[in-house]
Amino acid sequence: MNTNIREQHSASSKTSVSFSSTRGFYLLQDRSSVLAIRILERFLRYKRSNNNDTTFPRQQHRRFPYYVKSPSVSDDFMFYSNILPFEFQNVVFNISRDFERGTRRNLPWNSSIEYIVSHNTWKAVDGDFTTCWHATRAIRSNDFFAIDFLRIKTNVTFTLSVAHSYKLQTNLDVSISFDGLKWISYQSKKGIYTKTKKTSHHQLYTTFFNSDQFARGFESFRYISFKAVDSSNNRFQVCEVQIIPKKKINVVLRDFQ
To answer: Is residue 230 one of the residues assigned to a domain?
Structure first.
């Protein structure tokens, strides 16, 4: 989960200090991470005390793949993608000798971390057109970005502004889902309008989605995804996702047309 955490000022905050602001917090956090790994290592060795093999191979039995997610500013939807900031599942970890491998010390740093901070997924939903989420690698087949509206919605209306090419966007497979497991491809362009918008930072392609005008049977869904059918040297660049209130639909639609 990636999000931009901002301090909220209130009357009570003037007299109280958050735990993360107390002296020695980061040292305590780091020591807690190392201690947790040591406890896990000791427990695994105890469970295997009757076996001379002391290695602990990585095993994964995940029902779902890894996603990176960010909530919208107003917490009314979640933006996510399968393209991670870095391929952390490939990091080698020997629990018997490398207790600190699972701590923040092994995160990318210098130019790598600067790139992740500058182009993270919450840049796509921070309400600022001058910032974008840039995928950290070239697009592979079945790579995607998606929106979770948190519950099944009927006749939802939203805009999607991207800085990657119009050709790339129009070649993405648009699919909807009720549960995030079974997906239905939406091939029709009904209810979808696109315009070009130039800014000082990007040339944006903004697409207006009005599911009220989608083909029959596609008006309701919880998830909508945009998936690459083929590999490409391009990268996803999403600058803004915004849900449009019903009372503003006519104005926005007139602007797009």
So the answer is: yes
Percentage helix, strand, coil for the chain under 3-state DSSP, each rounded to 5: 25, 25, 50
Q: Is residue 194 part of a domain?
A: yes
Q: Residue 87 has what DSSP assignment?
A: -
Residue 188 lies in a domain: yes
Structurally, the chain folds into a number of domains equal to 1
The answer to which of 46-50, 99-103, 133-137, 143-147 has the lowest mean pLDDT is 99-103
Find out whether 44 and 95 touch, Cβ atoms under 8 Å: yes
Strands of 68-143 (E only): list them: 68-71, 78-81, 133-134
- Provide CB contacts within 8 A for 100, sequence distance 6+: 33, 34, 37, 106
* Between 3 and 149, residue with greater pLDDT: 149
The contacts of residue 156 (CB under 8 Å, 6+ apart) are: 149, 209, 211, 221, 243
CA 224/CA 247 separation, integer angstroms:
22
**Six-digit token string for 95:** 């629990």
Residue 71: which domain range?
Answer: 66-85+120-256
What DSSP state is assigned to residue 38?
H
In whole angstroms, give the CA distance from residue 196 to residue 207: 9
Contact 99, 34 (CB under 8 A): yes
How does pLDDT run across 24-83, given as a tens digit for each residue? 877 887 788 778 877 877 777 777 666 666 566 666 666 667 889 999 988 899 999 999
pTM: 0.73
**Is-contact 104 202, C-beta < 8 A?**
no
Gap between the Cα atoms of 124 and 128, Å rounded: 8
